[in-house]
């Protein structure tokens, strides 16, 4: 049973954002918040085993994991920590997206935190997917419809465990805090500041209108350099 609090943004805003792929949201961000042109999104490649799934939009649940070293906590304390972690993941603003940093340094991805069990548990807890620089496994048994962006795919979970949760993490170049709004698809992910989220769908439409004359001539059998120049001029005049 999950406890989903009313989010800081109306559900209609999240639904509108979900109609666009992540590159389009990045384009829109360049219009609405040009100062964020070099920050706030993944800059390193991630594996997406389910590229046909639609974009996901949700509030971050942040976790730091490691797998090379065994947890130093006694078994009883480990069990308690696991329950506390699930309580954190399953409560708060929804829908939610797990954002997990593997802190094993040069051995990042050594053991998979994610597989058949965790994907199904997190889906039941109200998460839409996971973004991690760590590894994942059990791809055929993965929870249906649960998106995944991962640093690698591997067979073992080694000594994997959650070291901490609720703090700031950095995954594939993207810095994320708990409850940050995340947009993600097969291309990667981006953090959307709450105060500009509602402006992005309109900006995304503007991006589309500006691209239309260029794409039309590029795809036309009558393409010519002169027609491309004219299309570029028309595109620049669209506001």
UniProtKB/TrEMBL annotation:
Entry cofactors: a divalent metal cation; Mg(2+)
Phylogenetic classification of the source organism: Bacteria, Pseudomonadati, Pseudomonadota, Alphaproteobacteria, Hyphomicrobiales
Residues noted as binding substrate in the record, renumbered to the chain: 137
GO molecular function, a single term: metal ion binding
UniProt name for this protein: Putative 4-hydroxy-4-methyl-2-oxoglutarate aldolase
SUPFAM superfamilies attached to this UniProt entry: RraA-like
Residues holding Mg(2+): 138
Chain segments annotated as transmembrane: none
InterPro entries registered for this protein in UniProt: RraA/RraA-like (IPR005493), RraA/RraA-like_sf (IPR036704)
Domain of life: Bacteria
Record keywords: Magnesium, Metal-binding
The keyword Metal-binding belongs to this UniProt entry's keyword annotation: yes
Cell cycle in keyword set: no
């Amino acid at each position: 049973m999950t406890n989903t609090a009313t989010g800081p943004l109306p559900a209609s805003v999240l639904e509108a954002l979900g109609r666009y792929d992540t590159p389009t949201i990045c384009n829109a961000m360049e219009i609405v918040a040009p100062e964020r042109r070099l920050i706030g999104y993944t800059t390193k490649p991630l594996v997406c085993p389910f590229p046909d799934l639609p974009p996901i939009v949700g509030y971050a649940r942040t976790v730091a994991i490691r797998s090379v070293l065994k947890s130093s906590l006694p078994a009883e304390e480990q069990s308690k920590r696991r329950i506390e972690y699930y309580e954190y993941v399953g409560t708060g603003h929804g829908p939610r997206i797990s954002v997990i940093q593997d802190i094993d340094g040069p051995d990042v991805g050594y053991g998979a935190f994610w597989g058949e069990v965790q994907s199904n548990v997190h889906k039941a807890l109200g998460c839409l997917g996971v973004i991690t620089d760590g590894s994942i496994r059990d791809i055929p048994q993965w929870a249906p419809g649960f998106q995944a962006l991962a640093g690698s795919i591997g067979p073992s979970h080694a000594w994997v465990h959650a070291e901490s949760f609720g703090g700031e993490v950095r995954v594939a170049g993207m810095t994320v805090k708990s409850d940050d709004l995340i947009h993600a698809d097969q291309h990667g992910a981006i953090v959307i500041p709450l105060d500009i989220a509602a402006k992005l769908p309109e900006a995304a439409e503007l991006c589309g209108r500006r691209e239309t004359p260029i794409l039309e001539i590029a795809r036309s059998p009558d393409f010519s350099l002169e027609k491309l120049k004219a299309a570029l001029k028309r595109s620049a005049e669209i506001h």
